[in-house]
Every structure is written in C-alpha cells, then in structure tokens.
Amino acid sequence: MNLTKVAAWSEIVSSVAILATLVYLGVQMQQNTAAMQAQSRQAMFEADREAITVWRNDPGLVLDFLAEEELSSERKIRLHSHLLAPMRNSEYQWFQYRNGVLDETAWRSYQNIVSLILGTKRTRKWWKQVGHMGFDREFVQIVDGLVEGQPYTDYYDKILALE
Question: What is the phi/psi pair of residue 133, to 5°?
Fold first, then answer.
C-alpha cells in the first residue's frame, strides 16, 4: 500500500469518527435537555403543591382575596406574602418558557393560574400597587396584558358554592 492510499483511508476513518462523535453529542444534548425539562417541571410542580398546601392550611387567605372590608395590617402582610410567592413562581415559569425549557402549552396553562391569582378586585389592586415591584420588566408586561381589561373571576365564588 502506498502512502496516498493510507492517507485517504485515514481521512475516511477520521471523517467517520467525527460523524459518530457528532451523532453521540446530539443524542447527549437531547437527553440533557429532556432531563433539564423534567427537573424544571418537577420544581414547578413542587411550588404549585406548596401553594395549594398553604391555601388548604389557611383558607382565610382565599377569603381575603374576596373580602370587601378593609383588612387588618396582619392580614395585608399575610396576603402580600402569599401573593408574592405564586407570582415569583410564575415569573420563574416564564423564564423557563423564554429560555426554551418549558413548552408553549405548559406556559399557557401557567398563565391561567396568573389570571386566577389576579382575578379578584383585591388581588388585582395589589398587583397594580406593589405586586409588580422587583419583577422582570417583560414579565410585568405579560402579566399586565393578561389581566388588563379582563373581568374578575368567579372561580373563588364557585369554590365557596360547592356542596
């Protein structure tokens, strides 16, 4: 075998090795992306479960959403803290969507939760007055677009009407 043939075979073997490496790296990236998405969804699920647990353990929070009377300072602080947590979770979900970790269908379902959280006169007033402070500007614009001009929800009234 002459040197030219050896060089040609070396190039072929090298090209095949490079192609195999690229295929392997592509598969690894897909698996890594799937793992990141699963971890992200798990974190969002845990945050949702925690919020539901808080509501279950303190139903007065939901009643504060609907209360017409002036709330005590203690109830205002409790409500503020409770609203801040799910809105931070929603901001995290939006970041995950924007970064391609969360798909559009999942993000749309989380937008519905934002509409429920800010679906009462009191919670919407909270958002306009202090809720959006410290949040990402783009996220605030998205939330404002979700609730601006929307009617208040009857979701909580339906919960209270359950028999």
Answer: -65, 130
Residues 114 and 155 sit within 8 Å (Cβ to Cβ)? no
What is the spatial distance between Cα 96 and Cα 87, in angstroms, rounded to a whole number? 14
Domain parsing of the chain, residue ranges: 36-160
Task: Give residue 114's pLDDT.
Answer: 93
Write out the two tokens for 148: 């601006």
Cα first-last separation, the chain? 89
From 87, 147, 141, 140, select the one nearest 119 (Cα to Cα).
Answer: 147
Cβ neighbours for 40, distance < 8 A, ≥ 6 positions apart: 96, 101, 102
Question: Which DSSP helix (H) or strand (E) runs through 18?
Answer: helix 3-57
CA quadruple 59, 93, 111, 126: dihedral positive or negative? Answer: positive
Indicate whether this model's pTM tops 0.85.
Answer: no
How many CB atoms are located within 10 Å of the residue 3 CB? 7
In sequence order, the 6+-apart residues with CB closer than 8 A to the CB of 37 are: 101, 102
Query: What pLDDT score does 1 carry?
Result: 63
pLDDT-flagged residues of the chain (< 70): 1, 37, 45
Tell me if residue 160 falls in helix, strand or coil. Answer: helix
**Helical residues (DSSP H) of 58-150, grouped into ranges:** 60-66, 73-98, 104-117, 121-126, 137-147
